[in-house]
Task: inverse folding
């Protein structure tokens, strides 16, 4: 083999190695592009605690700070969810009449504030502030998925405030939201296991009728909570107040380790 041929082979090998290294670096960058972030804080209005009136909105959401496609999409979805949550407390007619209410959290707040003012005109002696708080943070990030928790608190009159937690999964390649059921391989087995763990937590024997024991069931059947998420320890199942038990009971939550979820959860899709 001539020197030129050998040199060509060596150059080709080095070029191939360099391309692979470059590809690996790009993949690594893509893997972590949505993992670095900071808390975005927004506050509108305020509650006058002396006169016990006013409107307050407080938003504290962790967001990825990368300028790439994945992080940008996640931010867009979180912003949309924030606006939807605020608009859920506004009079639907007011939201429709003011199209800006769907454009930003501030605009949604202004509709919320107007609804409060209208309410006070009709019921000037009604005490209490109207308040909404949203807090969001990551539960776990992997090279494939970002799992996110969004806590919601609101008081707009009534006997007590309302609060609930929701969990969300974002695709590590696109930033799009993924339904948690996409990580489940055997939904029938999962339902059975969740009920077993629920009964163990609540100290209920297998034969005890849950409705007779005071729990709320859908069509008289046990159900997996609307919100569950994957953590470093396993799958966390979270029943919000009123979902399966009375408000006074508070949320009911428990984690099932991955060892007990073999064949039930698509662990390779999580990690």
Result:
């Amino acid at each position: 083999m001539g020197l030129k041929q050998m040199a060509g082979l060596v150059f080709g090998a080095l070029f191939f190695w360099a391309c692979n290294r470059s590809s690996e670096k790009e993949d690594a960058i893509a893997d972590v592009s949505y993992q670095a972030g900071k808390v975005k804080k927004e506050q509108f209005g305020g509650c006058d605690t002396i006169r016990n009136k006013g409107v307050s909105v407080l938003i504290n959401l962790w967001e990825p700070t990368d300028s790439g496609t994945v992080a940008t999409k996640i931010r867009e979805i979180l912003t949309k969810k924030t606006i939807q949550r605020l608009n859920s407390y506004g009079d639907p007619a007011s939201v429709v009449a003011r199209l800006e209410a769907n454009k930003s959290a501030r605009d949604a707040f202004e509709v919320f504030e107007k609804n409060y003012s209208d309410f006070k005109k009709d019921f000037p002696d009604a005490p209490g502030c109207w308040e909404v708080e949203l807090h969001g943070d990551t539960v776990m990030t992997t090279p494939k998925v970002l799992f996110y928790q969004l806590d919601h608190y609101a008081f707009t009159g009534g006997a007590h405030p309302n609060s609930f937690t929701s969990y969300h999964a974002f695709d590590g390649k696109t930033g799009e939201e993924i339904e948690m059921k996409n990580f489940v391989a055997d939904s029938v087995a999962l339902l059975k296991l969740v009920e077993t763990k629920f009964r163990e937590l609540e100290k209920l024997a297998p034969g005890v009728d849950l409705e007779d024991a005071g729990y709320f069931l859908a069509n008289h059947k046990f159900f997996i909570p609307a919100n569950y998420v994957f953590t470093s320890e396993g799958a966390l199942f979270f029943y919000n107040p009123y979902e399966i038990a009375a408000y006074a009971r508070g949320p009911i939550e428990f984690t099932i380790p991955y060892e007990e979820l073999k064949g039930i959860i698509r662990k390779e899709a999580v990690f």
In short: The first helix runs from residue 3 to 32.
